[in-house]
């Protein structure tokens, strides 16, 4: 059963939802990273010690196709290793995942609700 007030985004559904969420959160916390740096940060987290580079690479490519992350630069002299960062869509996905809209609806006064409605319409 769905949690009350929880927004269900397509990027956080399905079999790869947990890894998508972790990749986006790590990029939000640490800023732009290469896939190797991203893998090191993810493997330090509980339940992700055995996550392979190839799995993270595929998820990063999928998130890039969906415009949640983008290449912000390249590192290295000989091998141009892409550095990935969050796009505004990725930042918004993380923000919407953390907000509990039920609490906002119950605690906001009339003026705040009107300003939210103006923004959304």
What does this structure look like?
There is one protein chain. With 121 residues, this protein is mostly helical. It has one domain (10-120): Orthogonal Bundle (Arc Repressor Mutant, subunit A). The protein is built from 6 helices and 2 strands. It has helices at residues 17-30, 35-43, 53-65, 88-98, 101-107, 110-120, and strands at 69-75, 81-86. A two-stranded antiparallel sheet has the order 1-2. A hairpin with a 5-residue loop joins strand 1 and strand 2 (81-86).
Give a short synopsis of this structure.
This protein has 121 residues and is mostly helical. It has six helices and two strands; from the N terminus they run H-H-H-E-E-H-H-H.
